Amino acid sequence: QVQLVESGGGLVQPGGSLRLSCASSGSIFAFSSMAWYRQAPGQSRDLVARIFKIGGPYYAESVKGRFTMSRDNAKNTVYLQMNSLKPEDTAIYYCNGDSGLAVWGQGTQVTVSA
After folding, report:
1. Per-residue pLDDT band at 54 (split at 50, 70, 90)
2. What are phi and psi of 75, to 5 degrees?
3. Which residues are CB-contacts of 92 (< 8 A; sequence separation ≥ 6)?
4. Are 24 and 15 in contact (CB under 8 A)?
C-alpha cells in the first residue's frame, strides 16, 4: 500500500507564503492524478488543486492566481506553493492520490492569522 506523507504546514501571517510537500512511498506514476484538498473546522473537505500525469493543474476558483501545484517525478513528491495567504485559507490540508482507489495522507495544519 502506497503511503502519502504531507509536510510544510504551520502558522503564517496574512499575506505570507507556505510550501506544502506530499511525499509518496512509491512512484507517483501509479496515480492517474494527485490532488490537494483542505478541510476547515465544521466544513466539508474541498478540492484545492489537482494535477494529472499529462496536462496542467486544475485549481479551485478561491485559490487561482495564489496557489501553484507542481510535481517532482524523480522525488515522487508533489508540492503546493501557497502565496498571498488569507485567514480563510486556514484548514487541514490533505494530499490525495487516485490509483483507482483513493489514497490519503494524514494532513498538515495551515493557520493564517495575525
Report:
1. confident
2. -100, 0
3. 38, 39, 40, 107, 108, 109, 110
4. no
End-to-end CA, the chain: 40
Residue 77: strand, helix, or coil: strand
pLDDT tens by residue, 66-112: 999 999 999 999 999 999 999 999 999 999 999 888 999 999 999 99
Helix (H, G, I), strand (E, B) or coil at 29: helix
State residue 56's pLDDT score: 78
- Beta-carbon contacts of residue 36 (< 8 Å; ≥ 6 apart): 20, 22, 47, 48, 49, 50, 69, 78, 80, 93, 94, 95, 96
Amino acid making up residue 79: Y
Answer yes or no: are the C-beta atoms of 78 and 71 closer than 8 Å.
Answer: yes
Structural contact between residues 30 and 1, judged by C-beta atoms closer than 8 angstroms: no
